[in-house]
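ping. complex inputs:
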Amino acid sequence: MEWRPILSTLRRHRIPASLLVLEIALTCAIVCNAVFLIGQRLQHMQMSTGIDEHALVQIQLAEIEPSPDIYARAREDLAVLRQVPGVQAAALTNQVPLGISSSNSSIKLDLAQRQPTLNAGTYFGLDLPQTMGARLVAGRHLQADEATNVDVVLKALATGDAKQLPAVTVITQAMAQRLWPGQNPLGRTFYIGPVGVRVVGVLADLARANAYNDATAHYSMVLPVFMGVGQNQSYLIRTRPQDRQAVLKAAVAALKKADPQRVVTRQRTYDEVRSKFFENDRAMAGILVGVIIALLTVTALGIVGLASFWVAQRRRMIGVRRALGATRRNILNYFQAENFVLATFGIALGMLLAYAINLFLMLHYELPRLPAIYFPVGAVVLWVIGQLAVLGPALRAAAVPPVVATRSV
Amino acid sequence: MFGYYFHLAVRSLGRNRVLTALMVLALGLGIGACITTLTVLKLLSGDPIPQKSARLFHPEVDPLPAQGYVPGQSKPPWGGLMPYADAMNLLHAGKAERQAVMALTQAKVEPRQLGQKPFFSDGVMTTAAFFQMFDAPFKYGSGWSEGDGESRARVAVIADFLNDKLYAGRNSVGETIRINDHDYRIVGVLKPWSPQPRFYAVGLGGHSYGNGDAVYLPLQSARADGMDPQNVSCWEAADIKHLETSPCVFVYVWVELADAADAGAYETFLSNYAQQQIATGRFHRPEVALPDVMRFMRDAQVVPDDVRLQAGLAFGFLLICVVNTVGLLLAKCLRRSREIGVRRALGATRRTIFAQFMVESALIGLAGGVLGLVFAELGLWAIRHQPAQYAALARLDLAMFAFTFVVAVLASLLAGVLPAWRACMLTPAPQLKAS
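pong. complex structure:
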């Protein structure tokens, strides 16, 4: 391949050539960053919750008349739910993983500490890990006799008398690792406010309800506090995946029958919880995919248009070359090589731009650095698109007969 | 003359249909994307109360303990939520033209009619000056007085849509409405009123967009009846049954000043208040803040990052489309050097050639604008089906409609300048000779 004539031709058509380079560069820069953003969203959407997602349904109720005894009401509801055919387990919880509405606590390792060590999602409930299907990797589950009713907890907090409070908890491996790196967490104590809590069990994983940040998404603990019925409480039911809809319907009917003075504010499978949590990310990823396709199409069409004109303008030159012995393949290769040169300049400039945009995004949107792998992949994509786009005009150029050289126009 | 250029442009564009279509399509796509994202951005960052947003301020104090305090490096936490006691102190000090304290609660409304089920809606617990301060217009009756709040009177103002739903739109002042298991007497019915976003409660919970709150109750009365605020934060273990005296924040204070220039004086007052509280040992941090409506919304990040990113992306896209059009127009103009040569030889001036090419570009721009409008409508239709609170509000308004064409013609003229310049600088002789 002879490169010199290509470069000298481009030098004579500096403005159209540089416009094409600029277009490729901008496309390259935006596409690299958009693909990176999509990757970030997809990765976030893959977040594990550590629970048996396809086997769970959630029901939330609001009472019209306040229950005289919120604990008795909840215990009765749970008994009713466990009678519903197909229900394997049921539990009362104040939140569900990825449920958005959350309860959290600041945790200290030492009461004298000025700043909390971390902030963790705080689940209140009994049998909660078992019902959700969160796997226990060390220690034991919370036991029924360790449960405390929530009003006792509130009273103790108000008076500062911590003797009555739940003194045990089950935490996730991620939280244990962060609190005591490399050590056995069983039997150790941390503090929620002034109250010391002893770790008796470790769960493989349990995501928190407000898992927006990947780094802290898996800091969760379960406290044996019995909340009773209330606005923010909901029932989690475990069943076989294929029975979920039927069980959901039957469970709602059973709960309403037990106390007709209530409205169901929420009834959904856990899959819907996950889907709802990530809906913004999914929408954004969809928009980005649309933009990438539109951008690459516009750029490809731009290349086709410009190359077509270039070919039409150089018909005489092509005819002369053909008359002087150039084969069709030579002409084809010439235009392909020309496009390759332009694309290469564009890509080189585009990489710099992509890096600059990434730096800007890192500064304003807390994004990580663009991994180096995006650069070669982006380059190959644009080279391929450039070659595909130029193929049509280049073939038309190759079809120009040598006799054109002899005509005056 | 213009008519002739127009004729020439149409003929020239008709000669290269594919290319023309390509340019119009690219421009249309870019403009459609820009108008879609700009509409959303405008919707989200718009001024919810333009007539007095510069005179409404949101006082903020920092009630956190001395622990972990680094002077100069902290600012009022929780987006300016305030402890009840301080909010009431500011209210009673009355240093501003008007001031109100507010929190949101979930209101269970029980219709009197048999067979209608109770339903939940957003309720505002606030103080008397709320309605006048935010220019909430009354259809029937009026608000309540400061005295009603102090005496825990069970009075309520309801929204237009709730009045329609419960009383079929008739004057319901004097009727009794059952809210969260307590009977309240209706003293006022609002006209349709729903600032977008609901700036006064951004961060208090509930929805920022939509048709507004359903009921308005005196804060003290509602709290006495056990209604809980939607958003509570505590900095120490607290008894959440007695929020008023606990180390917790759950209310906003808004103040209206006679003039935006009085903000300095009010901030001094606020600063002195914080110092006083430090002297009594209640506060430990002297930082205060007094943002106006627009700054408050900026601080609260009312416009999501994703929307900004999308707008940036759309402008990058339009830029590429414009570069693309420049390239294609230029290529086209180079091919027409003979035509230009002939016209110049026949006496056309450079100015005429330039004008002719610009008319052609503008024509492409107008066509791109029309197509862009179609794409924008499509884009907004897609936005309306997105899972966002503001989704239903995403519609093209008249200003944006006009703006589309301004952007389209500007973009195409910008794209046309270089080719037109090249065309008019051609010397006629060589072009004629070459043929």
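Chain A touches chain B through 53 residues (CB under 8 Å).
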